[in-house]
Amino acid sequence: MINQSYYSSVKRILLIVLILNVAVALAKMIYGWMTNSLSMVSDGFHSLFDGTSNIIGIIGITLASRPPDKAHPYGHEKFETFASLGIAFLLFITCFEILQSALGRFYNPQTPDITLMSFLVMGITLLINLIVSQYEKNQGMRLGSSILVADSKHTRSDVYVSVAVILGFIAIKMGFGVVDPIIAIIIAILIARMGIKIIKSSSTVLLDSAPLDAETIRKIVVSVPKVKDSHKIRSRGPASHIYVDLHVILESCSSVDEAHEIAHLVEGKLKSSIPGIEDVVVHVDPCEKNNMDDS
Questions:
Q1: pLDDT in tens, 55-67
Q2: Are 84 and 198 within 8 A, CB to CB?
Q3: CA–CA–CA angle 47, 50, 55 (5° rounding)
Q4: Containing H/E element for 245?
Q5: 95 Cα distance to chain centroid
Q6: How far apart are CA 230 and CA 242, in angstroms?
Q7: Helix 38-64, helix 116-143: angle, nearest 10
Q8: Which of 42, 144, 173, 249 could be bridged to 239 by S-S, CB 3.0 to 4.6 A?
Q9: What was the pLDDT predicted at 179?
Q10: Is residue 207 exposed (0-12), middle (13-18) or buried (19+ Cβ within 10 Å)?
């Protein structure tokens, strides 16, 4: 069953962050261009790609919210993870563009015109990014959304970038103009590092790495009345849409109807105990196996 409330919440958060990111990006890019500050313009492009990643996230979460069909019986939730990879790809493009501009500045040195307004613009946008990234991360953890957590990392990298730019401004005011392209290169490295982290996180979902500990699941299952043990426990999927399948061994032989009822109890117990579980497939082992385990 598709949780439309979840998808609506994620889209609303991404839209809010998109508007703020675009505003921050324009402020940095326009003033950076006016003052000839490469590091500030680079930071502005980084913020602009934050906004682009929000758009990718909105598209991804819209596709993920589609209900299961014949071709996709498990639903479309992994579109959310694919969108996270799209964000990482944009980060690498940003990294390349900044490196290219920074290397060009070494061959054609230019000293930026750093003013008090430069510090004010960077300080205000830094504060906005800090608030936005923390808000997005908190909401992503609360909802179990991989796209929000990935996007918050993207936005958080903007905070580190802005701090580096401000430090660069101080060095430039002290007469070290060469610091501007050096700061831009540091920014590019930070951006690339964040992209690698997002790819690692997304790959665990796409490769069906187990999001839950099998022993934790087993302890919950055996707490259900008439369940003796559980084995062949598997789990997969993102934190917000986890699929679990397992085998259970009953304490005694049961009718088909009773075994079916116990399986339902196991499913309900797991869903109520672990947030994010979307579906549970329970296989009740035959009575002969139970007796063999007792012997």
A1: 777 777 777 777 7
A2: yes
A3: 140
A4: strand 242-250
A5: 19
A6: 18
A7: 20
A8: 144
A9: 78
A10: exposed
Question: For 279, phi and psi rounded to 5 degrees?
Answer: -155, 150
The amino acid that residue 34 corresponds to is M
At 63, list the tokens. Answer: 């596709």
Length of the chain: 295
Whether the model pTM is above 0.70? no
Contact 43, 187 (CB under 8 A): yes
Token reading at 222:
């055996």
Q: Does residue 232 sit in helix, strand or coil? A: strand
Residues 6+ apart with CB under 8 A from 201: 84, 146, 149, 150
pLDDT mean by block of 10 residues, the chain; 295 residues: 69 85 85 79 74 74 75 70 76 79 73 79 86 86 76 75 80 77 79 81 74 90 90 84 89 83 91 85 76 48
Best CA proximity match to 237, nearest among 199, 280, 289: 280
Query: For 291, phi and psi rounded to 5 degrees?
Result: -65, -35
